Every structure is written in structure tokens, then in C-alpha cells.
Amino acid sequence: MSVIRDRAFVPGLLFIGTVVSIISSLGAPLIPTIANDLHTSLGSAQWSLTATMLVGAVATPVVGRLGDGPWRREVLLFCLGCVAAGGALAAVAGSLPVLVAGRAMQGMGLALMPLTMAAARDALSRDRAPGVIAALSVIAAVGVGLGYPLTGLIANALDVSAAFWFGAIMSSVAFLLALLMVPSTRHAKTQGRIDLVGAALVAVGLVTLLIALEKGADWGWGSSSTVGCLVVAVVAFAVWRWHELRTHDPLVDLRLLRHRAVLTANVSGLLIGLSMYLGISLMTQVVQLPEAMGETVFVSGLVLLPFSATSFLASRLVPTVQERMGTRITIPIGCVAIGVATLFFAVGGATELWTAFVTMAIFGVGVGFTFSAMPGLIVRAVHADETSSAMSLYQVSRYVGFSIGSGLAVTLLRAFSGGGASATPDLDAYRATFLVATALAVFAASVAWWLAGPPAEGRPRVSRALRRREAEEGEVASAGLEMLESPLPR
Predict the structure, then answer these.
(1) Cα-based angle 180, 184, 189 (whole degrees, multiple of 5)
(2) DSSP 8-state code for residue 18
(3) Which terminal residue of the chain, N or C, has fewer Cβ atoms less than 10 Å from its own Cβ?
(4) What is the maximal distance between C-alpha atoms in the chain?
(5) Rounded to an integer, what distance in angstroms lies between the CA atom of residue 249 and that of residue 193?
(6) Considering the entire predicted model, what is its pTM?
(7) CA-to-CA distance for 302 and 196, rounded, in angstroms?
(8) How many Å apart are CA 72 and CA 129, to the nearest integer?
């Protein structure tokens, strides 16, 4: 790299990571305003968030495979171009389908963090690369908390389209930086073929499942349309499992679930993803609900700031907790914290603004513990050459949980409001949905504890120094997220 490119490379990567994180969080605080502006229901407007998560779940392993070779720079530019174009499309959208299409294009940004980390690993020295990768992982978490109030402020001062125009402009700047600063990898080897069949099957299964969840109350849960969508989803996932276990280059390697730790992380990640997006997506709606707090879009975004702060701080405590209490307890502690947060809001809050801030702060502690511990759990259980595939499987599980959680929020609100598209969710419906999130978190804690299993009998006593070293390895794994030994998901 030239001197100028060398100096601007790391700031450019950090800027790209920040933009991608902010763009991915545009949807939730704007849902009530979108529903009002486009004269649609909250359930339909929720697709502006669900579509982003859905595309992220499917695109992440595909983009990772495409970028794990000679076309990394080109893939990065293509995805950033999609994010920018999606923001512009969402900004000019006059109907919900157009808006959802734009938000779906922005979902390509969720697949870009591993690419930025891969670029850092390959272009920087061994001494410098880990610190930059850790900074990128922190940006991925903190950017979400920044995105909510920032876009809320723009939407509150101007309008929703201005928030999406902001995202389009920032994505365009990131595109230019990537074009100028990210080096080519044309010299690298191609890493096998792309499992497009697997990606298509996952997409069909998720879309039909989410349609059934969102439209079931309107069509009737026993109607041919609802049952048909559910049958298609089950068949698609069954065929996908059969295909993944038999193809040479699977989208994600399901065989890795034979490792108990990998199974624990993926099941827990999916369940926590469900609970997390039930809580986050609905919290921003409750804060704006006239009968609850009646605050602005900007204030609803500010509520997420404690979430980002405490999730980061909690992630730094994970090595100490694992050293003193063992690795088995870490994920259940995080799950219980999430359950405590949602229970507190459902039973004692939902009418005062301070309760929303406290809830999100406790919520962040839970997310920080769980999502920081899971990568380390996986890394210690699999061989080095399986790390990338295991992390890809874990990341897909999280995004699937996020997208289903976003769709399930609509179903539960309708169910607790009497059902039907015309039913307007009241405060009691939101409280009941938060109780469901509590139950999911407690169930996730139980599953994580049970799947992890007791320590092996006869295991030698582990010294305090060794436990500290293992905990630090878990922290490094968390900092690198889905990168680690081989940086890109497969």
C-alpha cells in the first residue's frame, strides 16, 4: 500500500464498520412513524426491520465465501453499493413494498463485518491486526446503539426519508473509501464453490415461516394459506438439512453440531436472538406509544444507548467470570439477565421513561455476556480448520433468531390484542409480549445449562493461571467475532 493508503486504511475500515452498523439499526425506532406515514399496520411496517435481518441471515455465508478469495474488494464494493442504493430506494419509497425492498438491500451490509476484519488481518502486521479486529468488533456493537438515536434525531427534526437519505449518503462515502483504501486480493486462491441451493432453501424457509407468522392472524391459523406456508417452510428446512449434510461445500457445516459446545452456542444464540429482537424492536414502540410514554422517535432511540454501553462493559467481564465460576455458567447468567430485564419492564415498568433506560441497561448486560461467551465456547471445542465454518453456522443462527424474533413480535402483539389486522396493540399487549420474551430467555438459560453438560469426570484440576488463559482466549474470540483463525464464514 502507498503511504497515504497505509495511514488511511485503518480509519477507513473503522468508518465502514461504523456505517454498516448504523445502517443495520435504522428500522426499529422508525416503525410507528412508517406505519403512520404509509397508512399501514404496525405489523406490516415491522417488515422494514425483518427484511433487513432476513437478508443478513442468508447473505452472510454467501458473501463470506465470495469474499474469501480473489474477489474480496469487489464483493465489499458490491455490498456497499447495494446498501447505498437500498437507502436511496427507501428514502423515495411511496409504498410499503418499495420501502421493504430498499431495506432488504440494506441487509447486505450485515454481511460486511467479516470482510472488513479479513482485510485488516491480511493487510496489517500480526502485532497490529488483532487490535484493529477487536476495534471493528466493538464498532459492530456500539454502532447499533449510535444508530438508533442518530437516525431518530434526523427523522424527528426532518422526516423518515431524511433518515434513509442519511444512510444512503454515508454508505456512498464508505463505498468511496473502500474503493480507494481496500487492497485487491486477486492473488488469493478461490475457496470452493458457492452453495446457492442452500442459500435459496434457507431463504424460502424463512420467508414462508415469517409470512405465516405475520398473516396467520388475518388468514386464520387453520386456513389453507397459513398451513400451506408452514408446510413449505418445514419442507424447505428439511430439504436444506438433507442438502447441507451431503454437499461438498455446504452453506454452513451442520456436522459441526456434533460438538456439544457448538450445539449449545447455536441453540442458545437462536433463542437469545428471538428474545433480543422481541425486546429491542418493541421497546422503541412502547416508548412512542401515547398511552405509555408518548415520547418522540429521537427519545426512543436514546433508550438504546445504555444497551450498547452495558453490553460492551459486560463483555469485558466475561473472562473474569469464566475464571472464577467456569465457562458453563456464563451463557445462563446472560440469559437470566435478559429475562430479568424483560420481566421488570412487563411487571413494574412500561409507563415511566426511566424504566425503559434501566431495562435496556440490564438487557445489555445479558447480551454482552451471552454473545461474548459463545465464540470462545465454540473455538475451544473445534479444530482450527473448522473454526470458520463453526463461526459461520453460529452467525447464521443468530440472524435467523433476529429475523424470526422480529416477525414473532407482530404475531404476539396481534394475539394479545384480540387478533386481526385491525386490532391496535395496547399497553397490555406489549407487556404480555415482554413476558413471552422473559419465558424465552429463561428457556434459553435452561437449554444452555443442560446442553453444556457437567464437567467430565476425572478431569484434572485446572490451575488458576490456566483458567485465566482459557478465559482470555474466549475474550480474543469474542473480539474477533466471526473472524478468528480463518476470517470469513463458509
Answers:
(1) 165
(2) H
(3) N
(4) 66
(5) 7
(6) 0.74
(7) 40
(8) 17
Check residues 378 and 303 and name the one with the higher pLDDT. 303
Q: Which residues contact 229 (CB under 8 A, 6 or more apart)?
A: 208, 209, 211, 212, 215
Kindly state the cell numbers that stand for 400: 435467523
Buried b (16+ CB within 10 A) or exposed e, 300-318: bbbbbbbbbbbbbebbebb
Residues 6+ apart with CB under 8 A from 43: 214, 410, 413, 414, 421
Q: Is the distance from CB of 365 to CB of 29 less than 8 angstroms?
A: no
The pLDDT tens digits for 346-365 are: 887 677 888 889 998 999 88
Which residue bears the cell 461445500?
249
Q: Is 342 exposed, middle or buried (0-12, 13-18, 19+ CB in 10 A)?
A: buried
**What ranges in 25-128 are assigned the alpha helix state H?**
31-37, 42-45, 47-67, 72-92, 96-106, 113-123
Q: How far is CA 113 from CA 96, 234, 405, 472, in A?
A: 28, 31, 22, 22
Cβ contacts of residue 352 below 8 Å, gap of 6+?
A: 293
Cα–Cα distance between 57 and 66 in angstroms, integer? 15
For residue 30, what are the CA distances in angstroms to 1, 36, 147, 152, 304?
41, 10, 12, 7, 14
Q: Which residues, including other chains, have CB under 8 Å from residue 262's CB and lie 6 or more apart?
A: 256, 378, 381, 382, 390, 393, 394
The sign one gets for the Cα dihedral 142, 98, 88, 108 is positive
Residue holding cell 424465552? 440
And the C-alpha cell for 56?
443478513
Q: Are 55 and 108 in contact (CB under 8 A)?
A: yes
pLDDT > 70? residue 302? yes
Whether 252 has a pLDDT exceeding 60, the answer reads: yes
Question: Measuring CA to CA, how many Å separate 480 from each of 129, 135, 163, 335?
Answer: 10, 9, 30, 22
Q: How many angstroms separate the Cα of 182 from the Cα of each of 10, 17, 173, 176, 380?
A: 10, 13, 14, 10, 32
Q: Which of 426, 407, 406, 408 is nearest to 416 (CA)?
A: 426
Backbone φ and ψ of 29, nearest 5°: -65, -20
Side-chain-side CA neighbours of 394 within 13 Å: the count stands at 32
Which three cell numbers mark 190?
478461490
Closest CA to 167 of 189, 184, 143: 143
Q: How many residues does the chain have?
A: 490
Would you say 409 and 433 are in contact if contact means Cβ atoms under 8 Å apart? yes
Show the cell assigned to 379.
Answer: 473455538
State the CB neighbour count (10 A cutoff) for residue 217.
21
